[in-house]
Automatic annotation (TrEMBL):
Gene3D superfamilies: 3.10.20.30, Alpha-helical ferredoxin. Its cofactor is [2Fe-2S] cluster; [4Fe-4S] cluster; [3Fe-4S] cluster. GO terms for molecular function: 2 iron, 2 sulfur cluster binding; 3 iron, 4 sulfur cluster binding; 4 iron, 4 sulfur cluster binding; electron transfer activity; metal ion binding; succinate dehydrogenase (quinone) activity. Residues 3-95 form the 2Fe-2S ferredoxin-type domain. It is an enzyme of class 1 (oxidoreductase). Transmembrane segments: none annotated. Pathway: Carbohydrate metabolism; tricarboxylic acid cycle; fumarate from succinate (bacterial route): step 1/1. InterPro entries: 2Fe-2S_ferredoxin-like_sf, 2Fe-2S_ferredoxin-type, 2Fe2S_fd_BS, 4Fe4S_Fe-S-bd, 4Fe4S_Fe_S_CS, Beta-grasp_dom_sf, Helical_ferredxn, SDH/FRD_Iron-Sulfur. Keywords: 2Fe-2S, 3Fe-4S, 4Fe-4S, Iron, Iron-sulfur, Metal-binding, Oxidoreductase, Tricarboxylic acid cycle. This is succinate dehydrogenase. Belongs to the succinate dehydrogenase/fumarate reductase iron-sulfur protein family. Its EC number is 1.3.5.1.
C-alpha cells in the first residue's frame, strides 16, 4: 500500500509557498510522524517539522491532516491509506510559519507568561484534597499542543484569549494553593473576553487529551457570575 501526501511547503525567507506531493510505502503501525521522517530520510532532507517525544506527551508535533489538527506521532496512517486518496498535510493555522510544518509559538508562550501559567502559592500547605485533584486532573493534562487554539474560530478576534489559555486559567482557579484568583478572573473575563466564546465545542473535539476546554470555559462562566 502507498500513502500519498500533499504537503504544504513554505519558506518565508525565499517566498516559496506550494503543495508538494510525496508517495511513501506503508509500514505496519505507521504514524504520520513516521511518514514525515521517511520523507526526510529518503526523499527530501529539507522537509521541516517538529517532534520530540514520539509518544503524545510533548505536544510539539501537531499538524493539520485533511483540515483537522492532530498529533502526528499518534495519528495512524492506515485509515487514510485505505481510502486511497491523497492526504493534505498543513501547518497549524493561525500561527506564523517558520518553515514548512514548523510554526512560531512565541505568541502563546508570551500569553502563558502574562497569565502566570503556573501555581503561585499563597501558603506552605501544598496538599490538594483527592476529590479536587480528580477534578483538576483533566485540565492539568493539557500538553500545550495548540490544536484547540488553532481550531477555535474566535481566536481570530485579537483580544480573545482562546481555549488553551482559558483551560489553564480554570486549572489555577480551581487549585486551592493558588493565590492569584482575583487577577485570574480579570484575565479571563475582562482581558480574555471569556464571554465571546461561541460554545461551539470545536476545541473539545480536537483536543487529543480530553481536556475539554469548552466545558471548562462554561464552568469559568458559572464561577464568574
Ligand atoms: S467553544 Fe469557545 S473556545 Fe472552544 S472553539 Fe468554540 S469559540 Fe473557541
Ligand atoms: S487543551 Fe487540549 S488541544 Fe488545547 S493545547 Fe491543551 S492538550 Fe492541546
Ligand atoms: S512528538 Fe511529542 S506529542 Fe508528538
Amino acid at each position: 500500500m502507498i500513502l500519498r501526501l500533499s504537503i504544504r511547503r513554505e519558506d518565508p525567507e525565499s517566498g516559496i509557498c506550494n503543495y508538494q506531493d510525496f508517495e511513501i510505502p506503508y509500514e505496519d503501525g505507521m504514524t504520520f510522524l513516521t511518514a514525515l521522517q521517511r520523507i526526510k530520510e529518503y526523499q527530501d532532507e529539507t522537509l521541516t517539522f517538529r517532534h520530540f517525544c514520539r509518544a503524545g506527551i510533548c505536544g510539539t508535533c501537531t499538524i493539520y491532516i485533511n483540515g483537522f489538527p492532530k498529533l502526528a506521532c499518534k495519528e495512524q496512517v492506515l485509515p487514510y491509506v485505505l481510502l486511497e486518496k491523497r492526504v493534505v498535510i498543513e501547518p497549524l493555522k493561525g500561527f506564523k510559519v517558520i518553515k514548512d510544518l514548523a510554526v512560531d509559538n512565541d505568541k502563546i508562550i508570551k500569553k502563558l507568561k502574562e497569565i502566570h501559567g503556573w501555581v503561585r502559592t499563597g501558603s506552605d500547605d501544598c496538599r490538594i484534597p483527592s476529590d479536587l485533584s480528580r477534578k483538576l486532573e483533566s485540565a492539568a493534562d493539557c500538553i500545550l499542543c495548540l490544536a484547540c487554539q488553532s481550531y477555535c474560530p474566535q481566536v481570530l478576534e485579537e483580544n480573545y484569549a482562546g481555549p488553551l489559555i482559558f483551560a489553564k486559567l480554570y486549572r489555577f482557579l480551581e487549585d486551592p494553593r493558588d493565590k492569584d484568583k482575583e487577577e485570574r478572573f480579570v484575565q479571563a473575563v475582562e482581558k480574555g473576553n471569556l464571554y465571546h466564546c461561541l460554545s461551539c465545542n470545536k476545541c473539545n473535539h480536537v483536543c487529543p487529551k480530553e481536556v475539554e476546554p469548552a466545558t471548562l470555559i462554561r464552568r469559568l462562566m458559572v464561577y464568574s457570575r
